[in-house]
């Protein structure tokens, strides 16, 4: 069967291929490692009260991420276009499915940027800076500052992400080293005055399920490299290398941080902590430990906002280049940046942050973020049968069973999220179909223009 024809254009619109494997690795590591690793051990320990078993859970989490990434890498290397899941879903299931996938992923990034930026504002104020400034104002300032970095050009924004990811990874390794040389906490040391609210009353089985879910969420972001397939040199090789090597490095960092925390605290002392790594470092650094952890958290959050603005702007760029969004969003500046797409995302994120409306969207975007990975898994399976001759620089082993396994994991996670919060699941479904009139409008305009 012949592949579907690309939307008609007078001239192809492409981004500049100026990024290398270091950048690809940086976006995977930088997109995954965040403040979650400082909070997640407390949730995991509540469900798994055994140190070696906790480390095993974290190792298995990295292994599952690695397996799940295989169908994603196959699809991303086979369809090396900017925009992550959007061009892949479009190639497999047509422009309507691609449009909805792109829309949901973009909206998720816009809301996530706002949420992360507000948390960044909280961290800044914990450090004693801008305490009289509303957190929303600090959040908007971060979004605009990061957008300005992206505005300058792809090389500069890519270098900023690489540098930030290297500093962030090094900082977590330094924290692990400090903890490994720290003394054990006294037996009567109980750092957490209260258990995290979400864990109150959790039964043993529920706590175990929550532990698995939190570990999965802490590994989220390993799909970042495919958003830049159009800009990375030799994407047929480097997308796979960046993704798998990045997941491996993240798994190593997570294991070291958890092992270091367990060197200082027992699982019972970690259980329920809202900031387990911070509690552990207080043993050796006292109150200065809070400053160190807060500074690392602020850096991590700023780097993730930078990455998400880069990634999400590529979604609207590619959708506009394909004619399903206004074409002015596909204009590429001399430095290689889709500036108008960056500006639209920054404005949306800043409005969410300023208004506080991001909170309601954050509650309902969980199924979308998982659904994006599910769509890629399904696309990879379908494309194997629909386009057997498509060039596949990386082929998922044990096809189709491994791809089906990865898809079932995503489907199960979506089910857990929806069952846990049915109302948010309902609104998630509403938002899925909300942009269809917009899609029909632009596709009709495109047909009339090319008639």
Topology:
Elements: H1 21-32, H2 36-47, H3 51-78, H4 85-93, H5 95-126, H6 135-152, H7 154-180, H8 204-219, H9 235-264, H10 267-270, H11 276-285, H12 288-321, H13 339-355, H14 358-364, H15 366-386, H16 401-420, H17 422-433, H18 436-450
Helix pairs in contact: 1-7, 1-9, 1-12, 2-8, 3-8, 3-9, 3-15, 3-16, 4-5, 4-15, 5-6, 5-12, 5-13, 5-14, 5-15, 6-7, 6-12, 6-13, 7-9, 7-12, 9-11, 11-12, 12-13, 15-16, 16-17
CATH architecture: Up-down Bundle
Name the CATH superfamily assignment.
Amino acid/polyamine transporter I
Order of helices and strands: HHHHHHHHHHHHHHHHHH
* CATH-derived topology: Amino acid/polyamine transporter I
Shape descriptor reads globular
Structural class: mainly alpha
Helix share, percent:
over 70%
Percent of residues in β-strands: under 5%
**Rg, please?**
22 Å
Measure the end-to-end span.
26 Å
Biggest sheet statistics: none
What is the number of strand segments?
A: 0
Number of helices in the DSSP assignment: 18
Low-confidence stretches: 1-11, 193-203
Number of domain units: 1
Mean pLDDT: 85
Your description of this structure?
By secondary structure, the chain is mainly α. The protein has a single domain (21-444), classed as Up-down Bundle (Amino acid/polyamine transporter I), CATH 1.20.1740.10. The chain is 72% helix and 0% strand. It has 18 helices and no strands. It has helices at residues 21-32, 36-47, 51-78, 85-93, 95-126, 135-152, 154-180, 204-219, 235-264, 267-270, 276-285, 288-321, 339-355, 358-364, 366-386, 401-420, 422-433, 436-450. Helix 6 crosses helix 12. The longest helix has 34 residues, at 288-321.
């Amino acid at each position: 069967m012949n592949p579907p024809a690309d939307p008609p254009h007078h001239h192809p619109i492409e981004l500049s291929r100026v990024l290398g494997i270091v950048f690809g690795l940086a976006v995977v590591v930088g997109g995954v490692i965040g403040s979650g690793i400082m909070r997640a051990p407390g949730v995991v320990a509540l469900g798994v009260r055994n140190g070696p078993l906790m480390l095993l859970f974290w190792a298995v989490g990295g292994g599952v991420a690695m397996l799940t990434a295989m169908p994603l890498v196959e699809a991303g290397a086979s369809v090396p276009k900017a925009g992550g899941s959007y061009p892949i879903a479009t190639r497999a299931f047509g422009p309507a499915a691609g449009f909805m996938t792109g829309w949901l992923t973009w909206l998720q990034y816009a809301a996530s940027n706002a949420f992360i930026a507000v948390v960044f504002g909280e961290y800044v104020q914990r450090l004693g800076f801008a305490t009289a400034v509303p957190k929303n104002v600090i959040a908007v300032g971060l979004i605009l500052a990061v957008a300005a970095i992206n505005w300058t050009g792809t090389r500069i924004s890519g270098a900023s992400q690489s540098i930030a990811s290297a500093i962030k990874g090094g900082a977590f390794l330094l924290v692990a080293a400090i903890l490994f040389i720290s003394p054990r906490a006294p037996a009567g040391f109980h750092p957490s005055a209260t258990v995290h609210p979400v864990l109150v009353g959790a039964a043993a089985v529920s706590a175990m399920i929550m532990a698995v879910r939190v570990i999965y969420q802490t590994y989220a972001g390993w799909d970042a490299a495919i958003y830049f397939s159009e800009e990375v040199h030799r994407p047929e090789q480097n997308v796979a290398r960046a993704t798998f090597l990045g997941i491996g490095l993240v798994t190593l960092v997570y294991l070291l941080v958890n092992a270091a925390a367990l060197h200082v605290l027992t699982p019972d002392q970690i259980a329920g902590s809202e900031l387990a790594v911070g509690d552990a470092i207080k043993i050796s650094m006292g109150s200065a430990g809070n400053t160190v952890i807060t500074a690392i958290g602020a850096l991590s959050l700023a780097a993730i906002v930078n990455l998400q603005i880069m990634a999400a702007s590529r979604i609207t760029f590619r959708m506009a280049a394909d004619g399903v969004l206004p074409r002015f969003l596909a204009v590429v500046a001399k430095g290689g940046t889709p500036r108008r797409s960056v500006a639209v995302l920054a404005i949306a994120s800043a409005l969410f942050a300023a208004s506080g409306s991001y909170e309601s969207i954050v509650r309902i975007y969980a199924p979308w973020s998982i659904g994006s990975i599910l769509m890629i898994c399904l696309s990879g399976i379908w494309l194997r049968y629909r386009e057997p001759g498509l060039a596949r620089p990386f082929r998922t082993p044990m096809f189709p069973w491994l791809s089906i396994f990865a898809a079932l994991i995503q489907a199960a996670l979506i089910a857990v999220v929806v069952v846990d919060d049915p109302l948010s699941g309902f609104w998630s479904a509403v938002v899925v179909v909300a942009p269809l009139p917009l899609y029909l409008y632009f596709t009709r305009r495109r047909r009339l223009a090319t008639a």
